[in-house]
């Protein structure tokens, strides 16, 4: 039960979504948390979703029914933020039959966010909480399955260890390091009305919002992230970190010698599947050749 790290999930309810950017900053500012996946979700029924979320709670649902009644009137949209909780610091809370183990670090974050952003009335801060967090990795596992990841938290396990690659790049078994002309790189560009209604097309990286944000106006990339976050963009696209990285970037310098831009050959085009930020910064800095790691399924 008492793990060095674990996977947790933070749920932002519909009335908390206007504060999504601020909440993500609170998570990023805590060195004990690493954002793994962001998923926006429109359930068919808020009532059924609430019951699903709390069905694995330490307290029986009948006890929570009155406490969660306010959620039935909230916007029919939520955001799941799956995190790696690097220092859970588990302790027991509650009394008698409601006594349960809980991560103190996650509890502290949850209480901070509620204090800042919960709705107010004439008496001050209400208990209409905008945020919920899991009490155990088992709950996180079930939420992933609810959203369609049949393998649950196993989907976060890294299977490639000899190069730096995110957890979602895990079905490749052939790798080749090569030097290529940076202008030959392509990437997936998202187009559409929202994070729920979009299409993806291949474009040269100099047409990407990442690159255009660097050379023209960073607002181009900011609006792109906010429009598609939680849909096509499920990783944590951290704009301040990108801006900071662009100012003093040394590709493959220690201790990141294995952090290659990863590419895959798709329709005879070399498509960036990880490292687009780095590739765009190198192009902005007039780099002509780039060393990449090409991956493929054997």
What does this structure look like?
With 298 residues, this protein is of the alpha+beta class. The mean pLDDT is 92. It has helices spanning 20-28, 46-54, 61-64, 104-117, 137-146, 209-215, 218-228, 239-247, 276-284, and strands spanning 6-12, 33-41, 78-85, 90-93, 100-103, 120-121, 124-125, 131-133, 174-181, 185-194, 197-204, 261-266, 269-274, 289-296. A hairpin with a 2-residue loop joins strand 10 (185-194) and strand 11. It is elongated, with a radius of gyration of 21 Å. The strands form 4 sheets. Strands 9-14-12-13-10-11 form a 6-stranded mixed beta sheet. The protein has a 4-stranded antiparallel beta sheet with strand order 2-3-1-8, sandwiched between helices. Helix 6 (209-215) runs antiparallel to helix 7 and helix 6 (209-215) runs parallel beside helix 9. The chain folds into 2 domains: 6-156, Nucleoside diphosphate kinase-like domain (Alpha-Beta Plaits); 174-296, no CATH class.
Instruction: Indicate the CATH topology of the largest domain.
Output: Alpha-Beta Plaits
Number of helices: 9
How much helix is in the residues? 25-40%
Q: Quick one: CATH superfamily of the largest domain?
A: Nucleoside diphosphate kinase-like domain
Tell me the Rg in angstroms: 21 Å
Shape, please? Answer: elongated
Tally of strands: 14
Strand content: 25-35%
List the helices and strands in order: EHEHHEEEHEEEHEEEHHHEEHE
Q: What ranges have pLDDT less than 50 throughout 5 or more consecutive residues?
A: none
Distance from N terminus to C terminus (CA atoms, Å) equals 39 Å
What is the number of independent domains? Answer: 2
């Amino acid at each position: 039960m008492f793990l060095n790290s674990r996977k947790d999930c933070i749920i932002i309810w519909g009335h908390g979504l206007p504060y999504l950017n601020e909440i993500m900053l609170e998570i990023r500012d805590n060195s004990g948390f690493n954002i793994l996946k962001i998923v926006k979700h429109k359930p068919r029924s808020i009532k059924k979703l609430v019951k699903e979320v709390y069905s694995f709670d330490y307290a029986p649902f009948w006890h929570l029914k009155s406490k969660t009644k306010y959620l039935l009137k909230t916007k029919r949209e939520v955001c799941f933020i799956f995190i790696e909780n690097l220092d859970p610091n588990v302790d027991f809370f509650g009394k008698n039959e409601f006594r349960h183990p809980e991560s103190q670090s996650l509890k502290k974050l949850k209480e901070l966010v509620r204090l800042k952003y919960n709705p107010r009335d004439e008496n001050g801060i209400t208990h209409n909480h905008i945020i919920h967090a899991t009490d155990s990795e088992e709950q996180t596992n079930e939420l992933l399955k609810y959203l369609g990841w049949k393998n649950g938290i196993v989907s976060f396990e890294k299977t490639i260890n000899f190069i730096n690659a995110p957890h979602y790049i895990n079905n490749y078994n052939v790798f080749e390091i090569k030097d290529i002309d940076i202008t030959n790189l392509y990437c997936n560009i998202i187009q559409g009305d929202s994070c729920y209604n979009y299409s993806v097309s291949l474009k040269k990286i100099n047409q990407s919002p990442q690159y255009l944000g660097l050379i023209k106006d960073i607002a181009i990339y900011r609006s792109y992230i906010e429009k598609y976050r939680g849909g096509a963009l499920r990783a944590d696209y951290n704009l301040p970190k990108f801006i900071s990285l662009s100012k003093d970037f040394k590709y493959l310098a220690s201790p990141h010698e294995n952090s290659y831009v990863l590419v895959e050959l798709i329709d005879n085009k070399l498509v960036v599947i990880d490292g687009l930020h780095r590739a765009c910064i190198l192009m902005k800095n007039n780099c002509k050749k780039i060393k990449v790691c090409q991956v493929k399924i054997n």
